[in-house]
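job 3f2a | input accepted
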Amino acid sequence: MAKILCVSNQKGGVGKTTTTNILAMGLKRLGRRVLCVDFDPQGDLSLSLRADNRVEMQNSIYHALKGELLAVQTIQHTPLCDVIPSNMLLSGIELEFSGKGREYLLQSCLRPVLPLYDHILIDSPPALGVLTVNAFTAADAVLMPIKPDAYSLKGLVQLCGTLEEVRRKTHPQVRAAGILMTHFVAREKTCQTILAACRDIAGSLGVPLLRTTIRRSKAITDAQIHCDDAFAFAPKNGAVRDYQALIDELLEREVF
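job 3f2a | predicted structure (256 res):
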């Protein structure tokens, strides 16, 4: 039965989609059965995994949520990973579903495919609306990547507030997998200052700050541009090794 991890931050540019992609690649290298769910209307995860997410394809997560297709019918088996793609149609869900129980749409949609995979990774949108609440409600744990800047710290408090609200209202068992510092440069004083502040905030919120940090790297960006597996594209790159350390830590914490 699959464990579901949601990767989330309402602030863009923190490495959310990149982290989802590379975690999937790393878990596949361990022989795990992995499904990625692109739950962001921008569809960047779909593109990075070589999925066809054109609106006219009519086989995205949007169509599964509406009940027009079963989730299994929307899965694309790309050379990189199995993925349920997304596109801009998904942005209409908030308006189309306004009644009671709309927070459980994704959970209900994914339930039949849980036996088919070991891990399901959800890339949630950079917002704190109904899509994010759906993603949290469907997940076993939420990973929170942030950049070393003051705006990320403010957003972290809001994100944890949303997670706590989901715990109270729809899914008491969902837990914080941890806060992940990305774009990190150890020699920069600002990064160290933000990391220390993040440690204090994490302590006050009761959320773990992961010991793994992901350093800034052009190779990671290049791998995404080429829609390639970062572990194959730049196996000796420092940031790629950081992501391997992240997988090891999440396994140690029994997130995976």
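job 3f2a | Strands lie at 3-7, 34-38, 76-77, 82-84, 119-123, 141-146, 175-184, 209-215.
job 3f2a | closed
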